[in-house]
Amino acid sequence: MPHQFFKWSVLSVILSVVPLAACGQRLDMTTVEDRIQADLERQGRRLALREVRCPRDVVPHAGAFFRCVGELDPEGTFTINVTQQDDRGTVTWDVPNSKVILSLPKVEAGLQQGLTEALGQRALVDCGEAIYRANQPGDRFECRVVGGLTDGDDSISAVLVMVNATGNLDWKELRTSRSMVTAAVSDERPQSQPTATPTDSPASTSSAPSPDTMATPTTPNAVKQTTHNGPTGRPINRPYVPGDND
Hints:
Oligomer: single chain
Strand order of the largest sheet: 1-13-12-11-9
Low-confidence stretches: 6-15, 182-186, 192-246
């Protein structure tokens, strides 16, 4: 049964800083719009925007808040929250999840919370390099569980995220059963053939590799820690995974 972890909410995460010179007594909103649109398209997965529209006549004031509207190409509008950091035109902005667009760092946070509550283990989830993607009913994508999790005989290496018909997100763990893997390896191993043994020589023996002695994946926690840049570009420490650059 898939889990549902996401109802649309505004979760404030600063994703971009736009230093601006105030135009007279007003913010240079054309620069704000151009910068937000360029950043969204650069940070998004196959995202194209028609435009970003912000209110005019915004007076520079530290802590002041306003909203802009983004419009996807070919369709769909979404909210962009903008906060002034000072009275000299420095602003930060973020995009809340909506029926139109997904902020993947927020999706990661929701998945991490859901896995922790379901399994009682702390999880680190990575949904890839992009920060934003269009939210389309019927779409699905995988997010990696960094370092993996265990649940009894099952190992969980990833989560499948599915966008349902209402635009909300369902998810389920992608599991591998250790007992099933062991049984499959046992079924496939070569079987020793009966050999005629001369009576004047010791019996020869031949045994197939035991599953216990075959190479198994290294437990991530048994090796070194590494620094991993997640989708937001933030450095996070996590267990080393084979294939990382040393």
